[in-house]
Amino acid sequence: MDWGNFMNFTYNSYENLIDKLVENLYHFTDYDHYLDYEKSCILRHDIDFDLNKALVLAEIEEKLNNKYKDHKIYATYFILLSSDFYNIFSKENIQKIKEIQKLGGQIGLHFDEKKYIDHTESPDVELIKEKVLQEKNILSNIIEDEIMVVSMHRPSKWFLNSNIKFNDIINVYSTDFFNRFKYISDSRRYWKENIQDVIQAQCFDRLHILTHPFWYNNEEISLRESIYNFLFNSKYKYWDIMNENITKLSDIIEKDCL
After folding, report:
1. How far out from the chain centre does Cα 110 lie?
2. Cβ neighbours of residue 75 closer than 8 Å, sequence gap 6 or more
């Protein structure tokens, strides 16, 4: 792929991103061990909408582990308990998360502060700390593994400026990771900087790269197409769910009729 001045949102491009990081001598790490390497990169995936696409990225990372014997390729996958798009308590989704773990991905908590506080008032920091701990414990119990890190879902300016320290869990938006690393994100399917240039510049010993698996596909498509395809295909997903709960659903409405 010709990187040019941008990165395509394809699975092949994601593989090329990993290749570029390895070629430029970055070691993949978590939020505990980044000081173990002269040049370290934290890969982070926020799962806002689709666990299936997150699983694809985990499979790519596992595949590349066989390519790079001297590098362990992995990322931290942040799960949103309050998502309206996937049910964290369902058997199917628990299996997907555990499969991500088996492939080498670490699991973190994706936390939506807006669920608990109204920013028209003075934010209650202690309430946020309490709720983060509650959700951490819930997710730890679900996946039967300890959750060690939390990222905010669409964090407010208030939160980004607060540098909150939580008990027993690392805040990935703390000063250590948000300001002392070179932080770069593909939010809204848009890299604000040329990520290839950032990697190849040799100016940064610490990279913190955030991707959203939702945006990646086999072929390059537009922002609108990404969202449209997800919404269009969701009707089939809900038909399958209803079919598990309504006897002879196809006698009432066939899937092909949607």
Report:
1. 8
2. 28, 43, 44, 45, 57, 58, 61, 105, 106
Question: If DSSP codes are grouped into helix, strand and coil, which group holds residue 46?
Answer: strand
Helices (H), the chain: 11-23, 51-67, 91-102, 125-143, 157-160, 175-178, 195-200, 223-243, 249-252
Residues 182 and 206 sit within 8 Å (Cβ to Cβ): yes
pLDDT in tens, 30-82: 999 999 999 999 999 999 999 999 999 999 999 999 888 888 999 999 999 99
Distance in angstroms (rounded) separating the CA atoms of residues 225 and 111: 27
How many angstroms separate the most distant Cα atoms in the chain? Answer: 63
Taking the C-alpha atoms of 84, 231, 224 and 4 in order, what is their torsion angle to the nearest 10 degrees? 80
Residue 31: partners with Cβ closer than 8 Å, 6 or more residues away: 42, 76, 148, 149, 170, 172, 177
Q: 0.90 cut: is pTM over it?
A: yes
Tell me how far apart the alpha carbons of residues 233 and 104 are, in angstroms, rounded to a whole number. 29
Residue with tokens 């699991």: 107
DSSP class of residue 33 equals: -
DSSP for 157-199?
A: HHHHTT-PPBTTBEETTSHHHHTSSEEEE-GGG--SS-HHHHH
